[in-house]
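Question: Hello, beginner here. Any chance you could explain the protein record under this note? Any guidance would be welcome.
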Amino acid sequence: MILKSLWKKITSGPEPLLDADELAAWYQGLPPEEQAKVTAELADRVRRSGPAVDPATLTARVVGQLLFERDAADGPVPLHNLRVELWDRDIGTPDDFLGAAWTDATGHFEIPYNPGDAGIGDVPDLDLRVFEPDHVYTPRGEPKQTFRHIWTERGPDDFDGSFFDFGPVRVPYWEYDAHWPIPRLAVPEVGEPPTAYAPGRSLAMAKAVAPVELTRRKHLLLCKAGRPPTIAQIEADYPSCITKEVDAIEPGRSRGDAWFGDRLMNGMFASVLDRDPDNADGFRLYHHWNSYEQDGEHVLPNVDMRFVLKDGRLHPTRITLWLREPGATAANSPTTKHVLTAEDPRWGAAKRLARISATLDTELGGHLAQCHLNLEQYAIAAWRNLRRNPVRTLLTPHLREVVLINTSANGFLIGPDGYITRASALTDESLNQRVAQLLGTYDWRGYEPAPPVSEQHHYGHAAARFWALISDHVDRFFEENASDIAEHWVEVDRFSADLVQHAAPFFLCRHVRGEVVERGANWYVLSERGNPFIERPLVDGVPRAVSRISESDQVTDAGLENLKQVCRYVIFLATFRHTWANNRQWDDGGEVHYTSLGLRWSEAGPFAPEDDAPTLPSPEHATEMLWISYMLSQTRYGSLLDNPDRDVDPRFVDALRAEKDTFAKWDLDLGQVTSRINI
């Protein structure tokens, strides 16, 4: 009936191609999947068409309650503020729209409707369809609300009554996976997750992988045939990377002290630089690995690096390594301390061990845990709770696809057969332990990029400026949407509650507890780490890593400031921080001799020369490493400046574009910064 009554209105023009009867006949000839596409295409226009409905004509109604599929510890969880629509199912013609409503704070809804809207002689077959809100920005820069269909609850056929109760409707929507010790999305093995990649992302992935896919397959086939290529042959088959390029011009430059310090300050490894507790003018980086079980095959010592600034650049002065005995696997195994300086003939090997430690620390910490897994908890809580509050428009463009790429990493990078597990010293159990502890240190409260330590600290300068631009963007958004944010504050309160309830237990390592908390060290940078002096919320008596945003369902000044900080934190990690670490993986991880996720114990010992084949990763692991590094760093979809999905405020995009030249001075191409984590 929709086509006959509304088609001329929908397709008004001087010469319609089909009249109503011809159109109905065409529609009936389509296969079911094509009919469904036509119905979905017309649905929004059907909802908006026609004059306002007189409530007196709505003689029937349906009611019900939307609930999450899974209960919380204290019972069912309502699905608040979702749009529900009542439709008449039809066979042979598009379905008929009957009415709509929003669920309330308890998930309840009521939809009045006129049974006659099903069409003359048609008794309605009831469908309840559930939609989540979304948005795009118009060319004028105004947010336009859209809707995405997420669930259909089938009602009775040929319902001729005036009242129907759908009862409690369970919707499998953004559920937590109780099998993980950290907040993760439950994704069924059979079925689809509650979100999807943007279409262009798949093409971007294919384009990035294509140049190296055949190379990897060739190497693996040679290994299976018993003719494994050498590491040098493997490296030569992949595109060149920055370490090889600089060495071609100036041999040995990438192994020098200046290069080593610069990459730890500005490369993929860009690190939080603590002051040297033994030298007020120096800096320190410390990686602790001995408290974890190791596989006994790979070398992974504790590493303490000390630096000084020379002409604004970081130069190493001392590297201290705590090495286990070969084959030792137990956590807290006995170690032997080695203190090395530039005068030691093992200095180059010590720097390589430190680079490998930094590579693993960055991949697990600054990349996987801090950006990917940390933001997954904000994505789950946001989609579960933020719908009518405008903050959804601010946050969701930056949280759209992170759970999808994280799900892909479950078996690909981590897990018993994941690449990191196979290629590094950490076992599956200790890797999960490390990730959970890292999640236990991340919090939005008090977070701010550490200030740059010199003019040559490009990462520090770029991070500070990007943070300032995000802050301007967030402040403007809150000012313009103040009343609506306050009106729907209950969503923020529930967002906060979900974050805290499911956050990882707060983790404070012995090193920080002793050096920072007990001794009051002033050399330790707190602004990018979990602050041990902040009181943590308790869940079941356990302190949690994520601070509360809101203390009630009513807005307060403190709550507003907290929410602003959460928005700054999420946007910064999803855009700048992830891009800096991810896109530089090929720069710092494109040469196996330079670094990898782990060196193997060999007869030559941990200080073996770079060309000692038994120490290097196996050919299979080496080609996997280069393939993964290239693919991850070269797959780019969703540039902030391009804004391809039109979901980011154009004014923020314009503010960034205006400073493109400034960021270029700090070795950051803003055109490569993505709006979300999808690789």
Remarks:
- Residues 1-16 have pLDDT under 50 and may be disordered.
